[in-house]
Write a structure and sequence with these properties.
- By secondary structure, the chain is an alpha+beta fold.
- Helices cover 16% and strands 32% of the residues.
- It has 12 helices and 39 strands.
- The strands form 9 sheets. Strands 31-32-35-34-36-37-38-39 form an 8-stranded mixed sheet, sandwiched between helices. The protein has a 5-stranded mixed sheet with strand order 14-15-16-17-21.
- It is globular and about 70 Å long.
- The chain starts with 8 loop residues before the first strand and ends in a 9-residue tail after the last helix.
- 50% of the residues are buried.
């Protein structure tokens, strides 16, 4: 309902009353993670807020999307723990009614037919053997297996038959993602990488001839300072892969001979020189390389689709999809400041001239801020998307007409009129997303400038996009603006922008944030005396470092932020064990930087109040870091609030936690900014 002009009240920023409560923010969210077609049905996984935010599986249809059926019983929760962040935790069998999924509590793969009870496909190991990146093939279930039964993690690409028999196809890399089999089943493709690299730094494309049992035959494209992502076969001897060797992720095609032919001569030569060597000994360390690995070069990649933006992103979770293809078309997600859906023609043969033409498919309303591809059928594309004027939703896009059909919403808010309408800007040479104060019932005096919260995304490879946000709207509808900063290290702006943070974590991220804030104030958009800074995980690190490095902020909030680099490299999990090598420097060579940059060593430089929010079961940034930091603040006499939430991990999921932390954060700012709690206008 539109508000009448006479209903608009003039009141100070921060005192506006809003119907958008913390309870609504916590309870209204049901994010959709993955989706897939099966005949006329559409399946998608989503959080169930009323059931402890477990991830369930919903079945609906394109013709009747309003009819939704929960497939999994309430005591099952879809979540993989491979690499701790999981991903790709379920898959449909296209040739039967069976659905395969990873159950969170035991990490086993289970089978279920809708309407029946689930039964386990893999043995019970008390969660010590995990599975992720599930992909169904006609030969069985292809996935990444992670064995945590020893101090050194062991990973492999495995094929699990419908009867539960496990076949190991490759151990050629320490970390693995996107296992794919060629249409004839002869060649396995996947992406691998080794410590100290992260998948957005440097990855390898592996091609394995799975028909050779005793002597694995392989081809490998080693991405030296190149991130190769998501290989997808287009024929038995060609595939599409995303690569950023030209400065940003774009799609390329690779044509190759059968792998056994590529390396036959090399193998014969080596065997003739090493006739006395047992072939099994040659592959004892198969996580590194193969004696018969044919080295492919990125120059063999032929340009296929380059939008000038990024067709790729940071692989924090397995199963991410940035492009889909069939025999006719390629559909891709292209990301810069905003997201777009594009398509182009797939060359029908290796002799076809590759076209640089592509078509952008647009939806009504504002451009999408973020987008995720899921699946395609002969007639539709499945994707989830968010924009500045709409909450997240699952859409089926008609391939012939480009029409968007809404299948499900991620939020069902009753107060969208009170949600902010973010916009992208560049301030101080830094891309930002601004959420100005917005409330249809309130306005402020023309002479008053609003308080602002500067939001620092995590990763630090994350990206702030102009999406309608219930969390940020909780602040903006009460008269406090929010600005998100895409500092150097953020994805979406090319490899050079990402690499600005190499060795400079705690320096470039802070200087970019300060430059953006200075420009925000210089334009008269924010009150320089009422600016807070907030961030989670690596964003929490930037918050605490910024508080110790400048006098710009009146206060700051860290959600499970890194405080001690030396403790982090000891305590954190395997996936990020050497992440700091690239962000700061390798240990022990960079020991001085580990000490001097850690916020725990700089608390004497912090003179403003700090809020610390932490889960007591966080395996990535353990609560010991937060407790030690709080103890140090106590010694130095800095004002603080500390909330330790039972049962929470790295990212809060329980409704009561989200409610309490959000209300506590707002109340913290109100106290620091001098906003009276009892004042309630309207």
């Amino acid at each position: 309902m539109k508000e009448f002009p006479q209903d608009v009240v003039t009141a100070p920023f921060g005192t506006w009353s809003s119907p958008l409560s913390a309870t609504e923010v916590a309870a209204g969210s049901a994010p959709i993670f993955d989706a897939a077609f099966r005949g006329e049905h559409i399946y998608f996984s989503t959080k169930v807020p009323t059931e402890n935010s477990r991830t369930g599986l919903i079945r609906t249809s394109l013709s009747h999307p309003g009819l939704k059926e929960q497939v999994l019983p309430a005591d099952f929760n879809i979540r993989s723990s491979v690499h701790e962040y999981g991903g790709g935790a379920w898959a449909l069998d296209p040739n039967s009614d069976v659905i395969y999924f990873v159950n969170a509590s035991d990490q086993r793969i289970w089978q279920i037919i809708p309407g029946r009870s689930p039964h386990a496909l893999t043995p019970d190991t008390s969660g010590r053997i995990r599975y992720g990146d599930l992909t169904m093939t006609r030969w069985g279930l292809l996935c990444v297996r992670e064995d945590c039964r020893s101090t050194r993690r062991e990973r492999a690409i495995v094929l699990i038959t419908r009867h539960g028999t496990t076949n190991v196809l490759s151990r050629h890399s320490y970390f693995m993602a996107w296992p794919r089999l060629s249409p004839d089943g002869s060649t396995l493709a996947f992406i691998g990488w080794e410590h100290p690299n992260m998948p957005w730094d440097q990855t390898n494309l592996w091609l394995i001839d799975v028909r050779t049992q005793d002597t694995p035959v392989a081809g490998v494209m080693r991405g030296h300072d190149v991130s190769l992502l998501q290989p997808e076969f287009t024929s038995d001897s060609s595939l599409i892969v995303s690569s950023d060797h030209n400065g940003h992720w774009a799609l390329y095609s690779l044509d190759f001979e059968p792998i056994d032919c590529l390396v036959r001569d090399r193998r014969a030569a080596k065997e003739s020189r090493q006739t006395s060597t047992d072939s099994t000994d040659k592959f004892k360390d198969s996580t590194r390389t193969s004696e018969f690995a044919d080295e492919l070069d990125v120059t063999a990649l032929r340009p296929l689709l380059d939008t000038g933006s990024e067709i790729g992103g940071p692989l924090w979770q397995l199963g991410a999809i940035w492009h889909l293809n069939d025999d006719e078309e390629i559909w891709a997600h292209s990301q810069s400041a905003t997201s777009s859906l594009v398509r182009t023609r797939l060359p029908r043969s290796g002799n076809d001239v590759l076209s640089s033409d592509f078509e952008e498919i647009t939806a009504p309303g504002e451009p999408f801020g973020s987008l995720e591809l899921h699946d395609l059928s002969h007639s539709h594309i499945l994707l989830t998307a968010k924009s500045a004027d709409s909450t997240g939703a699952l859409y089926a896009v008609d391939r012939a007409t480009g029409t968007f059909i809404e299948i499900a919403q991620e939020r069902l808010d009753a107060h969208q009129d009170y949600c902010s309408r973010p916009r992208t800007r560049e301030l101080g040479g830094v891309p930002v997303v601004i959420h100005p104060p917005h409330n249809p019932r309130f306005t402020a005096l023309e002479s008053e400038r609003p308080p602002y919260v500067i939001s620092i995304h995590g990763g630090p490879t994350g990206q702030a996009t102009p999406d309608m946000s219930a969390r940020f709207s909780y602040f903006t509808s009460r008269g406090i603006g929010v600005m998100e900063v895409n500092y150097g290290g953020s994805t979406g702006y090319g490899r050079a922008w990402r690499n600005r943070l190499r060795g400079q974590w705690g320096i470039v991220d802070v200087s970019d944030t300060l430059a953006a804030v200075d420009a925000l104030v210089a334009e008269g958009l924010a009150d320089p005396h009422r600016i807070a800074i907030s961030g989670a995980s690596s964003g929490g690190w930037t918050v605490l470092t910024a508080l110790a490095s400048s006098e710009t902020f009146a206060c700051g909030t860290s959600y499970f932020g890194v405080t001690d680099l030396m403790r982090f490299v000891v305590d954190t999990h395997d996936f990020e064990k050497h992440y700091i090598d690239g962000l700061v420097g390798p240990w022990p060579e960079a020991q001085d930087a580990y000490i001097t940059r850690s916020p725990i060593r700089r608390t004497t430089h912090i003179t403003v109040p700090v809020a610390i929010m932490q889960g007591d079961r966080d395996p990535i940034v353990p609560p010991s870091q937060a407790q030690e930091f709080v103890d140090t603040l106590e010694l130095t006499g800095v004002e603080y609030i500390y909330r330790l939430y039972k049962g929470e991990s790295h990212g809060f999921v329980r409704a009561e936690t989200i409610i309490d932390s959000l209300e506590s954060e707002f109340g913290f700012y109100a106290d620091v900014f001098g906003i009276p709690h009892s004042r309630n206008h309207g």
